[in-house]
Specification:
hpI Integrase, Chain A, globular
Length: 291
Amino acid sequence: MRRGGEKKIRGKGLTKAGALASLLDMRLSELSGQRIGKWLAVEAEKRPTQAAFAFHLLSVFINWCESHSQYAGLVPAGTCKSQQVKDEMPSENTKEGDCLQREQLTSWFKTVKEINNPVQSAYLQFLLLTGARRREPSELKWVDVDFQWKTMTIRDKVEGDRTIPLCPYLAHLLANLPKRNELVFSSASSKSGHIEEPTGAHKKVLARAGLPDMTINGLRLSFGTLCEWVEVPAGISAQIMGHKPSAIAEKHYRNRPIDLLRKWHIKIEEWALEQAKIEFTPVEVGLRAIK
């Protein structure tokens, strides 16, 4: 809960704010599922293990409030059990092993491409090849995808919007998805109209491929790790993934043009396909190719 900024007792510099510090100035009645989900999304990016532990402490505190008549009802019912919170909940062991290794790409891609549901298959590949957060592609609309200029505009729940390259293989996958509604990753059965819960499908993929267990967020982490094989500059991968600038050089934010991002993003995609032994010849695609 500490706000940080104090001189360290041990070592040099100032202390950092605790994981729950950003909630200190909020009223208990403002702790909605949406607000806690947004807080988790930010904290899980920086320190997933601490974020999971902080949420556990927060939920214990809210339960304590409910058990005392003078505080009961201050926090909206079901706050910690809402769908927004579940969607952003990090694994407590996210830092260790929650990532695909280079030699696992062949098995992973092969099994994902065998999924009968083309939307689920493309969704999982999208996460790995863009490093997007799990909810971002769910809300991607056809109007956000520009096949002519090879770009996509993603709704970034932390920063706003960001535009990233649409690389050839990913463009091929998207162009062949069914166009049921305005959403790219649509669903004929969900109330929202888009794919809702990809975890079950991904767990089956990992089991069939004989790969270790991994969270959906692990695909985002995998993208960041795989970028290092291509020696992508840290600022490039961070901008594609929607990370906040962290290094001093990045804080004076170099918002790189899309063509520079594309140069590196295509290298990432080509390298991943090569490791996965996927033969792909780029072709021009457009919305007219969608069935």
